[in-house]
Every structure is written in C-alpha cells, then in structure tokens.
Amino acid sequence: KDLLTLLSPLQFEGIFLDIHQTVKPLAALKFFYFSSNSCGFRFSLRSYCILIRLLVISNLDSAARLLLIRLIDGKLNVFCDNLRINDGHGDNGKHLELAALFADLSMGNSQVDVRILDMLVHVFASQFKVSGGLNSSLDVICMLARRGLFPSLRTGVFVLSSLVKANELQKSYEAFDIL
After folding, report:
1. At what angle do helices 111-122 and 94-105 cross, to 10 degrees?
2. Distance from C-alpha of 63 to C-alpha of 68, rounded to nearest angstrom
3. What are the residues facing 78 on neighbouring strands?
4. What distance in Å separates the CA atoms of residue 169 and residue 179, rounded to the nearest whole number?
5. Torsion angle defined by CA atoms of residues 132, 135, 139 and 141, in that order, rounded to the nearest 10 degrees
6. Is the Cβ–Cβ distance between 95 and 139 less than 8 Å?
7. According to the model, what pLDDT value does residue 109 have?
8. Alpha-carbon span 114 to 108, nearest angstrom
9. What is the C-alpha to C-alpha distance for residues 127 and 121, in angstroms, rounded to an integer?
C-alpha cells in the first residue's frame, strides 16, 4: 500500500511494462483490483492494456474480456491523462485509444494480436450495441487496418453480418473493402 502512494500511474506503467513478462497474470489481475478498489490507485489505460495482453497470452481470455468490458463501460478507475482522441462517440474515443494502445503493444499480427483485436471488436459490437458499438467496432477495424492489423476471418464475417442485419449497407461495403 505504501509503495503505491509513492508512484504515479505513469511511473507504474513504466515499471509494469519492464516486468510484465515475468509476472503471473492472475496475481497481476488481483493486484490491479486490490490497488484500485482498496487503495484508490488509478492505473493508466496502457497498464490495463498490458494486463489484458498478458491475460490473453496466458489463455485467460474470459478474464481479459471481463476486464476489457469493465474498462470500456467506465467501471474501473482509470488514469486517462493520455486520452488523445475525442471523436464524438459516447466513449470519448476510448475505443480508438484502446485500439491504438493494443496496436502499439502488438508484435505484428501474431495470434495473440488477432485474438485481442477480435475481442475488442466483439465486445464493442455485441456488449455495447445500443451505445454505437457497431460503429465503434468498424472504427477500430479501420484504424488498425491502417496499421496493418486485421481481425480474423470469423470476426470479419461477424461484423459484416451485423452491419447488414442493422441495415447499415454502406458501412458493410466499407467494411468489406477494408477486410
């Protein structure tokens, strides 16, 4: 507890980035929950992305998905000083910021990167449908495609069919061209 009072969220981020490969994912997840709930520590968005990536690498996709959902819906106390995108969506560009952070942490279209991208797209398209999640998932796909990262074929078909079902034909054509 005392150590957390000495660190800023960005200082922790730097340390976590250096040691994350040697950390046990479930221990890190428990530490994040304890630190934020009991101590009021606010982790940076990048730190949460590193943790999600660590969970996916360790095949703890359910925990990573739940953490991602809580991160998007604002149920986690996040230090967002570095939020750099505001595009008018209800999440103040958090979907694009998350995509950019995951792209920055990417190892170049590895299986893990594709799984994380798929998870991000699926969460927005299915969990946040009412609040423009389908548009957010299309924004994410467009932004990541510009960086050379693409979802799996299965996720691409899911997004295309969701757009068609929502009668968003023009957007489905855009998505098809990108994918």
Report:
1. 170
2. 9
3. 43
4. 15
5. 120
6. yes
7. 55
8. 9
9. 10
Rounded distance between C-alpha atoms, residue 12 and residue 6, angstroms = 10
pLDDT per residue over 35-84, tens digit each? Answer: 998 888 889 999 999 999 999 999 999 999 999 999 888 888 787 654 54
Name the token pair of 13.
């981020």
Taking the alpha carbons at both ends of the chain, their separation in whole angstroms is 47
Q: Rounded CA gap, 16 and 41, in Å?
A: 14
DSSP string, the chain: -HHHHH--HHHHHHHHHHHGGGS-HHHHHHHHHHHHHHS---EEHHHHHHHHHHHHHTT-HHHHHHHHHHHHTT-S-EE-TT-----SSTTTTHHHHHHHHHHHH--SS-HHHHHHHHHHHHIIIIITTTTTHHHHHHHHHHHHHHTT----HHHHHHHHHHHHHTT-HHHHHHHHHH-
- pLDDT tens column, 121-138: 888 888 776 556 678 888
